[in-house]
Amino acid sequence: MVAIIDYNMGNLASVRNALEKIGAASEVVSDPDAVKEYDKVLLPGVGAFGDAMEHLRHNGMDEAVKAFAKSGKPMLGICLGMQLLFSKSLEFGEHEGLGLIPGEVVPFDVKKFETPHKVPHMGWNELSVSKETPLFENLPSAFYLYFVHSYHAVTTDAYVIGKTAYGYEFVSAVQNGNIFGIQPHPEKSHENGLKILKNFVEL
């Protein structure tokens, strides 16, 4: 059973529908005390990092998620949910994250773009697999997924399992043991996205 963390940020229905399509049982969970009872946690999210952390802290959901991560059971952060896994974000100031993966979240640096690109990065783009991971099992070494974001993670190669080029190459998927994060939206990415979700559910 997958717990979809509800903290008033993100389209929970689309994530739940995608899990339903692959035959995975899930529940939207807003009670921090209930999180530990689930087999897996999915941390979705759309919106601003600071607001998201405030919502998570409001009822102690941040500590519940951290405790779940320490249990060794699989966790997946999607889009903003992936960004929340990091130590901090520079979105509208500096905000502390969950600290489950070392690194920070920064805005796209348009000065580094080799050719002009619009921000936010929106639409289909290719994720290139950086290292073997169960999250991308039975997928090719590069495949297309759907992105919507203006900020991206910066971390050491030790945690990087996927990269994407948009103006320059950035980190689009990460793993720290049982903790996974993916910047694009698998629930909006048709067959490739559903395969990623299926791989996660089968961990």
Report the mean per-residue pLDDT as an integer.
Answer: 96
What's the architecture, going by CATH?
3-Layer(aba) Sandwich
Strand order within the widest beta sheet: 2-1-3-4-13-12-11-8-9
Q: Biggest sheet, open or closed, and with what strands and sense? A: 9 strands, mixed
Shape: globular
Compact description:
23% of the residues lie in helices and 34% in strands. The protein is α/β, with parallel strands linked by helices and 203 residues long. It has a single domain (2-201), classed as Rossmann fold (3-Layer(aba) Sandwich).
Strands, helices and their partners?
Layout (H helix, E strand, L loop, with lengths): L1 E4 L6 H10 L4 E4 L10 E4 L5 H10 L2 H10 L4 E4 L1 H4 L2 E4 L5 E2 L4 E7 L13 E9 L12 E8 L1 E4 L5 E7 L1 E9 L2 E4 L7 H12 L2
Parallel strand pairs: 1-2, 1-3, 3-4, 4-13, 5-7
Antiparallel strand pairs: 5-6, 7-10, 8-9, 8-11, 11-12, 12-13
Describe the protein in words.
With 203 residues, the chain is α/β, with parallel strands linked by helices. The chain has one domain (2-201): 3-Layer(aba) Sandwich (Rossmann fold). Helices cover 23% and strands 34% of the residues. The chain has five helices and 13 strands. It has helices spanning 12-21, 49-58, 61-70, 80-83, 190-201, and strands at 2-5, 26-29, 40-43, 75-78, 86-89, 95-96, 101-107, 121-129, 142-149, 151-154, 160-166, 168-176, 179-182. A nine-stranded mixed sheet has the order 2-1-3-4-13-12-11-8-9, sandwiched between helices. The longest helix has 12 residues, at 190-201. The chain is globular, with a radius of gyration of 16 Å. The mean pLDDT is 96.
